[in-house]
Amino acid sequence: MTSHKTGCIILAAGQSKRLKSSVSKMFHDLAGRSVLGHVLHNLEQLALSEIIIVASPLTPTHPDYKHHKVAIQEEQLGTGHAAMTGMTQLSDDTSDVIIVCGDTPLLTIETLTKLFESKSDLALLCATLPDNQRDAPYGRIVFDGDNPCRITEYKDANTALRNSPLINSGVYKIRHNLLKKLLPLLSNINASSEYYLTDLVHIAIEHNATTQAINVDFNEVAGINTRAELEKVDAIIQGRLRATLMANGVTFQQPDTTRLSVDTQIGQDTIIEPCVIFKKNVIVENNVKIKSFCYLEDCTLRNGVSVGPHAHIRGGSVLDEGAEIGNFVELKATHLGKKAKAKHLTYLGDATIGEASNIGAGTITANYDGFFKHKTTIGERAHIGADTILVAPVSIGNDSITAAGSIITADVPMDALAIGRALQTNKQEWAKHYKAKMKAKKDALK
Q1: pTM of model > 0.85
Q2: Which of the following is catalytic: 344, 374, 383, 433?
Q3: Measured between alpha carbons, how far is 231 from 238 in angstroms, rounded to an integer?
């Protein structure tokens, strides 16, 4: 007995003309994941036998495609034609086929599971338009009782049908054998001269197939065709991410000003002040405070860390428990030990800093020689004086001190004071005579 297999075809070959971009709308970023990447991530939670992506010939080898089959749609002849293209890659032993638009990143696992579990010959997702979008150009669904019997594209609908709020989402599940039978029956005699996938519904009824409509929230099936629609979808994704974190004990002050990535992890009792950006691969543990205007990417903040305001942390940096980063401090590939501090106007790159060390204002690790990056190592309880330049590779020992204004080019042993300044010379009354000379010169020009 063969197992029941459900495959999926993603229609992702649109040219994105209304987005006015050289990049397909499928690959625009939404919280650290592409539009298509969101769709793939959600579908991959289902027990699908395979996923086929119908792609444009302009994007034949995008990284989003690497784990799935790809069918290139050479000509853009409508959604029905796109489905035909996808069918060329679908395995013969597939029982059911889910068809999804590649620009529907808001679909939830719960909704896709309902569709996956439908027992009808043809099931589709439908939604009710919000009152302020009743003229949106979605296809309208005609029902026979509770069952959909026809979908009419907006261009082909009359005024009465356009006033209907029930719209087609472009997401379906259909028996594989039925799909193979019905696709050749699609016609392109319509306002767009395209093969509409929506025509499957009334043709399925003519073949005595059972149909089902699964009503979902409009936001889940909202597509992306313009920059404004991209922004609306992005805002919804950001809201979902924040809501999940707040439910798990995170405080956002002015949450709408914070941007998260889909992989952002934040622990309990952490406080996020306004205007903070989390890019990919950020882990924040418990009781952390991140002050306004910070930018975090590829970094880990352990329990009790304080960051900002106006801090930039990236490149695999790690801040151990109780460490403090202040205003206008940048860390790149730096490990800051427990209770270590860098409070003001500092760049630390490719550095390891020991427990309880203090980095004075204006400190710079000169880590790049024009060809290679070099490492700075600072021991425990060290004090780096204000305006110190540490020319890597260099090591500063435990409990040592560098004098303010020093340029450190050699290793400093533990417990030592390192002074790397030019010798100061004071010229008595030089300033007095200089000012008098300049004043006389200025007076002579009047």
Answers
A1: yes
A2: 344
A3: 10
